[in-house]
Amino acid sequence: MGFLYARALYDGTKGYTMTNSPNNNNPGNGDSGDGRDPLEDFLKKMQESGFDPSDNNNPLGASSLNPEDLKNMGLPFDPSMMQGILEQMNTMFSINATPGSTPEQGVNWTGVKDQARRMIAADSDPSIAENLKQAAADAAHLADLWLDSVTVFERHNIPVEAWSKAEWLDASFNSWREMVEPVAAEVTQAMVLPGTDNVPEELSQLLGNSGFLNNLGSTFFGIQMAQALASLAKEVYSSTDIGFPLAPGRTALLPNGFKTLGDEIEVPAQEVLLYLAVRESALIRLHRTNPWLREDIMALVSRYARGIRVDMNRIQDAASQVNMHDPEAVQEAFEGGMFNPQRTEDQELAVERLEALLALIEGWVSFVADQATQNLPKAPQIAETFARRRVEGGPSEQVFETLVGLEIRPRMVREATAFWRDYDEKHGYEARDNLWLAPETLPTAKELENFKKYEDRVSEQLSFDDVDFDSELKKLLDGGYDDNK
């Protein structure tokens, strides 16, 4: 949304007019009646009032908006709307890259984190009470007892923590940065504002020191990321809620989240906490035993990012057509649609693998949690809530779609859950969990749709492993090879 204001401001300097405004007495020319351009006057006044986009603490300075100035520009003086615009502009400049930087230098990550923290603070985010911290620790202990009988993966022995939303952001931010940095690099390069050489002197003087125009891509991506993380902080229940650990070496539950969930589905908060503790502990066990999982996820995101193309035509069309008098229309114009839907062949391969891997992780933890919580009366109801959450777009789906442009299909998660259930019934949980030892032993996306294909492939591999490999290894160790043959 911040890009829209920048674009509208930029277009305004090239003759952009609000011809639909009921207050515009000079439609089509943007003239104040005495030959002066009202937008130029407006920009000069902002400069004179202390506007400094390079000042991350207060880029808008002491700027004030005079109703007459807005009227001359064809804008209605709606205090609430203008406050929103000011807040968006403040966000844009606080997240903007360091003054004098180039597009290659990328996103101002400190600004992104600070902005996300401010957005979280604007919502309710109380500190975690001591009794809730103890409740989380007790739930984690019981969860481990239940899990010991349904998985071969050993306990992680990491003390469980209880986080607020802000603490979740602080603990997880480095992982988010690691994951989206390849995407941000592509976006930054693709979204350099065209035609900046023709920017009028007033706008150039106003924004020049901030590097805003040259760093538009990184600024826009930073705004989008801050908004996504602040929104996600309201929905996550644990440190692994998107499918893998966001704070390696730590594990945590978010008590304020499970209390809200319990109220929504009318289930005792203690049962919700126990179910979430089981999921959290199961995922930590899975990833600590199989560290290649997280590495593969990061590598696949990076591989996908290399083929990303930003849909600049859509962004520019939205900027030129949006009704600036309607704040909701402004918001809707820039929700999604940032990435070009056309994928390269390599991207398709990366997407297929990433989607299957995330689905297998979620399917496994869903099935294992069901097994471990059979003595929890409301467990089926809680599990159904998580399934519905995925269909409606849970944290994992949201973050990959918003920040990476990747859509994860809920249907594949259902197929993965069914796969783990079927394999467990046929071979037992030890054989089931041993499939995680290497990527090659897991089913592909196509094999999730047809278990028979997977069984045929694995049976062939196991036959070779059990007979041919062992016998050949014995020959080698016994010195039974004849080099002359």
TrEMBL record:
Database matches in Gene3D superfamilies: Zincin-like metallopeptidase, N-terminal domain
Positions of region (Disordered): 15-72
Low complexity composition-biased segments: 20-29
Compositionally biased residues, Basic and acidic residues: 33-47
Bias (Polar residues) ranges: 54-66
InterPro entries to which the protein is assigned, alphabetical: Zinicin_2, Zinicin_2_N
Keywords, alphabetical: Hydrolase
GO molecular function annotation: hydrolase activity
Highest rank taxon of the organism: Bacteria
Protein name: Putative hydrolase
Organism this protein belongs to: Rothia aeria F0184
Lineage: Bacteria, Bacillati, Actinomycetota, Actinomycetes, Micrococcales
